Amino acid sequence: MQAAIRLLAQRGYRGTSLAAVAAEVEMSQPGLLHHFPSKERLLLAVLEERDREDHQRVAGTLAGDGIRPALEAVVRHNQTARELVRLFTVLVGESVAEGHPAHDYFVDRYQRIREELVAKLRRLQADGEVREDADVEALAPVILAVMDGLQVQWLLDPRIDMALSFEAFTAVLWRQLAAPAG
Amino acid sequence: MQAAIRLLAQRGYRGTSLAAVAAEVEMSQPGLLHHFPSKERLLLAVLEERDREDHQRVAGTLAGDGIRPALEAVVRHNQTARELVRLFTVLVGESVAEGHPAHDYFVDRYQRIREELVAKLRRLQADGEVREDADVEALAPVILAVMDGLQVQWLLDPRIDMALSFEAFTAVLWRQLAAPAG
DNA sequence: GTCTATAGAACGATAGAC
DNA sequence: GTCTATCGTTCTATAGAC
Lengths: 182, 182
What we know:
By secondary structure, chain A is an all-alpha fold. The first copy, chain A, is built from 9 helices and no strands. Chain A has helices at 2-11, 18-24, 29-35, 39-64, 67-78, 82-95, 103-126, 136-156, 162-178. The model of chain A has no long low-confidence stretch (mean pLDDT 96). The interface between A and B is large, with 51 and 51 residues.
C-alpha cells in the first residue's frame, strides 16, 4: 500500500502499472491482484486509507484551536509531506476528466469539505467573531483553492513557501472577516 | 490540433492515444505522426498554441484596465471555456510528476507569471496605490492559487461560481492592499 | 502527404498449478 | 496466498508502397 502511494504520486493512476507496484513489494503482479481485485479498487483503497489518517490528524487540531490555526497547521504539515501532497495533486488533476475512477470520490470530497468549512464559518458568525455580511459561501471555495493552488506551485518549484503565502492570505482574510464594518 | 486539445483535456496526456486524435480528424495514426514527429511534440505544440492565443487576449485587457479588472476578466472568460480550463488543469496535474513531458514547460510558465504579477504589484506600490508594507512576493502565488484552485472545484462541480468567488477574494484582498495603515 | 502493415513493447486480467 | 504462463488488448513508432 505504501508502495502504491509512492508510485501513484509519482506517475498518477494511468501512469502506474500493477507490475511496478508489485515489484516494489517484491511480489508478482497476479500476487498483488489477489489482495485487490482490480487496479481501480487498489486506487480507491489508497484514497480511503489516506483520508482516514488525515481526518484523524486534522480533527485534533480543529477541536483544540480555532479554524484558522487548524488550516495553517495543515499547510505547515503538508510542507513536510511532499509525497502525499503530490499524490492528491496528481490524482485530482487526472480525476477532473469524467469517467476517471476517482472522479466521484473527489466530487464528494470537495463538497463535504466545503460544507464543513461553511458550517464552521457560520458558527463564527453566530458567535459574533465574523462579520454578518461576509459571504462565507463564496469564500469557502477560495480558502480551499488557495491551499490546492499553492501545492501545485510548490510541487513545481520547491522554493515556494506554502506556509508563508498561506499565512499572508489568512492574515488578509481574517483582518477582513473580523473588521467591525464596511 | 483542435482535436488534440479536446482529447488531451478529456483524458490527459497519458490517457490520450495518437490513434484517437487521428480518428477525430479522419486520418490514420501514422498520417498524424507525419505532422508531429512524436506524441510529446504534439503536446508541446498544443501548449504553445494555447499560450499564444491566451497571451494576446489577456494583454489587451491588462493594458486598458488595471490589474484587478484584468484578473477578474480572465476568470469570467474561463467560465465560458470549460474545455480549455480542463486542458490546463489535467496537464498541470500530470506534469507535477518529474519526467513528465510538460514538467519544464509548467515550471517556467508559473515562474514567469509570478514574476509578471510581482512586477505589476510593485509598480502599484511605487504609485502609492498599494500599501508599501504589503508582502507582494507572498501574495502573488496566492492570487494564482485562487484562480487554479477554483478551476479544479468548478470542473468537479459546475455549480461552483468561479467569478463570484474570485471577486469575493479580490474584494477582500484589494480592500486590504489599498488600506491606509495597520 | 497519406496510406497499410507491422514491429516491439507494456498493460490488466485470468487460468491453473502448488 | 503466491507463483508461472498466457490471453487479448492497446500503445508508440517505423518501414515502405502509392
